[in-house]
Specification:
Keywords: ATP-binding, Hydrolase, Magnesium, Metal-binding, Multifunctional enzyme, Nickel, Nucleotide-binding, Nucleotidyltransferase, RNA repair, RNA-binding, Transferase, tRNA processing. The chain is of the alpha+beta class. It has 19 helices and eleven strands. Bound molecules: cytidine-5'-triphosphate (CTP).
């Protein structure tokens, strides 16, 4: 039996990137042999085994990789006579189809190293089309490696387009789509993910609510030269700069303006009430992809409240308190910082405003701390009940008012 390191670990090492998970492929062994050696099988029909000491994944070389409806991974066939080349040929991209033997030798029958140097994402063989998720994976790798200047090979882009046109993407299970989207949102350049998906037509299929923002003009006084889709790309990239690797902030950044595709079009669009219009498409997207509750909730908050945060200085003191109550900040204080981050990304995601200050972020946090400083302990004479709640609210509004006047005087 021979063991090879494969996939992302070899690729990232060659790119000089920090090591992630290591996956191995095992050639010339049967499941029984691995079990005798103490490996533990993961899943019943799945020829992947965990190493007895390291817990790392060892997969038997496979002849087929397919994703089916209702299945979140591969349906695979492994047989002892499958060669390493057979296995590599059925992988997605040449840069992911390089194997490394235990003595360090690289086995690279599909020229993955050449493509790594040329910064090209190229499919290995027609077997690419066996798994439609690979269209999304291509876009995700574009986001992950954006700083390195990767492009998608023309023949791969053509194949991706054909896969989209044949309707195969519709069969993808939502969990797999969300997994790729959340990985893209955790990368430094979500914009590259969106661009690649648009280029092959997959954005319309996977994220139609986001696709609808392209071609929708922004308010002329902000930046007439770009549309709302491009604005969202900039906001997502800014969110990744402000909160690197945080897909919670990323998802809210991606979806906070969905309503702009639904507000009436006119010469100078003002997108009146887009914060309300945005909720139904956001909920549809979140339900379809089974987006985690926390992500959906923050996205709804950002959609509803972003305009309020932008004009925080215009809000009445009691309206500021109501905002904190609506976002449930007294139970979940981290939401204040999260909402402020999305709003800052929104503001700085406007052409020419990348370096501008966003004082609302610190102000929102400051006013929340002041309001949070008022507690039931300040009213020892009032018994728990509605009267106590009312007293706390009034005192919080006064505390907010005082904090605002003292800072405006300063
Ligand atoms: N749909 C897929 C998923 C995975 N793979 C293969 O399985 C390897 C491991 O997949 P995964 O862990 O999902 O991705 P990585 O390439 O390791 O990338 P990352 O570092 O982002 O995890 C890939 O390199 C690729 O060879 C594939 O061919 N097709």
């Amino acid at each position: 039996m021979q063991v090879y390191l494969v996939g992302g670990a070899v690729r990232d090492a060659l790119l000089g990137l920090p090591p992630g998970d290591r996956d191995f492929v095992v050639v010339g062994a049967t499941p029984e042999q691995l079990l005798t050696l103490g490996y533990r099988q993961v899943g019943r029909d799945f020829p992947v085994f965990l190493h007895p000491q390291t817990g790392e994944e060892y997969a038997l070389a496979r002849t087929e990789r397919k994703s089916g409806r209702g299945y979140t991974g591969f349906v695979v066939h492994a047989a002892p006579d499958v060669t390493l080349e057979d296995d590599l040929r059925r992988r997605d991209f040449t840069i992911n189809a390089i194997a490394q033997a235990e003595d360090g030798t690289l086995i690279d029958p599909y020229n993955g190293v050449r493509d790594l140097h040329a910064r090209v994402l190229r499919h290995v063989s027609d077997a690419f089309a066996e798994d439609p998720l690979r269209v999304l994976r291509a876009a995700r790798f574009m986001a992950r490696f954006a700083a390195l200047g990767f492009t998608i090979a023309p023949e791969t882009l053509a194949l991706m387009r054909a896969m989209v046109d044949s309707g195969e993407l519709e069969a993808l299970v939502p969990e797999r789509v969300w997994q790729e989207l959340s990985r893209a949102l955790r990368s430094a350049r979500t914009s590259a993910f969106l661009c690649a998906l648009r280029e092959c037509g997959a954005l319309k299929v996977a994220l139609p609510e986001v696709d609808a923002l392209y071609g929708v003009p922004q308010r002329a006084e902000y930046h007439p030269e770009i549309d709302t889709g491009r604005h969202i790309e900039l906001v997502c990239d800014m969110a990744a700069t402000l909160a690197p690797g945080d897909d919670l902030i990323g998802f809210a950044a991606l979806t906070h303006d969905l309503g702009k595709a639904l507000t009436p079009a006119d010469e100078l669009p003002k997108h009146v009430m887009h914060e309300q219009h945005g909720i139904p498409p956001l909920q549809a997207l979140a339900a379809r992809l089974k987006v985690p509750t926390e992500h959906r909730q923050l996205a709804e908050i950002a959609c509803r409240e972003h305009l309020n945060v932008h004009r925080l200085h215009e809000l009445r003191d009691d309206t500021v308190l109501r905002l904190f109550e609506r976002i449930d900040a007294f139970r979940k204080p981290e939401r204040v910082r999260q909402l402020a981050l999305v709003c800052e990304a929104d503001k700085r995601g406007r052409a020419g405003l990348e370096d501008s200050a966003y004082p609302q972020a610190a102000e929102l946090q400051r006013l929340f701390e002041v309001a949070r400083g008022v507690t039931a302990g300040d009213f020892p004479d009032i018994a728990p009940g509605p009267a106590l709640g009312e007293a706390i609210r009034k005192a919080r509004v006064m505390a907010i008012a005082k904090a605002r006047t003292s800072s405006s005087r300063a």
